[in-house]
Specification:
Layout: H1 13-23, H2 31-44, E1 48-52, H3 55-65, E2 73-77, H4 82-89, E3 94-98, H5 112-115, E4 120-123, H6 135-145, E5 148-152, E6 160-161, E7 164-165, E8 172-176, E9 190-194, H7 200-207, H8 213-217, H9 237-248, H10 250-267, H11 269-273, E10 278-279, E11 286-287, E12 293-296, H12 300-312, H13 328-333, E13 334-336, H14 343-347, E14 350-353, H15 361-377
Parallel strand pairs: 2-3, 2-4, 3-13, 4-5, 5-8
Antiparallel strand pairs: 1-9, 6-7, 6-11, 8-9, 10-12, 12-14
Length: 378
Amino acid sequence: MIPFNKPPVVGSETGYINAAISSGKLSGDGEYTRRCQQWIEQHFSTKKTLLTPSCTASLEMAALLLNIQPGDEVIMPSFTFVSTANAFVLRGAKIVFVDIRPDTMNINEMLIESAITDKTRAIVPVHYAGVACEMDTILAVAKKYGVAVVEDAAQGVMSTYKGKALGTLGDIGCYSFHETKNYTAGGEGGATLINIEEMIEQAEIIREKGTNRSQFFRGQVDKYTWRDIGSSYLMSDLQAAYLLGQLEAANQINQRRMTLWNNYAQAFADLAHQQRIEMATIPAECQHNAHMFYIKLTDINERTAYIEHMKKANIMTVFHYVPLHSCPGGLKTGIFHGEDRYTTKESERLVRLPLFFNMDDEMQQHVIDATLYYFNYS
């Protein structure tokens, strides 16, 4: 069976993990945490990076940092992972879902302004498949109404919008280093990017269980105390050791994934030209990271048939999010603003193909051949 995903392994992870074990420092904010945070800050030009146990934790940190209160409204797409909404629901917020664009599967930036009310506190663009949302428009709307922008860039590490790294354009950015992502911290992991200088101190307090422990270890205070609400949002240094090996090979991983992505795009170009499938649109201002390769079929019935065909060929293909506004949790905690023109329809015909760093050419050719066979004989 060709799996849908296999966590990347570049070879240096084991050495770093052994060194971390030998150091006697396995909890958060050790040497490897520091080195990973510095790597992200230097390569992506963000003011402060704080490693976290997951992107879920990073989003929760963002909700705490913005002091989201019961009754506040937060705008986001419905086509996203549950953590995007949960982080704000946990603070009592009402989620306002907005329709997506069918070309990128990202939030339709032209529909956001009409969803804003006097209760709106934040806009959460989700950069689906590592392809940036139309951030100029989103940032302009946020500035006009004085609301924050939290980028859910879980899938966007190494992607850019007009040359700027995703996660660094809004007030706060959230990364994922889950094993399904391009770069992993040995299974789970995340990072919170703080792009507003005035937020850094409070972000450190929230991440350290509401204490000023970070300042204490820097020698800025003589003892640390409970300052505010917070939680335990530190990644272990053992995980950071694994992640450092991945980050140091980021270009190598990125190049291989781009090669695989381009191979798919070239192999299926005729199918797209014949309008048998649709592939992702990459806007000119966006540089994506080949996080995923998906195709869109006619409807949910054809998608189901295609997935079953691929399974018989020993290939794992998967669909993606069930739109949150149609889920029990979404019905309880949010509303869909305007017409659901594309969210449900497009989500029901999207299927993701295997794509991972250690995928070899023979594996990929088998996926391509099985797909072409399906469309030639279906």
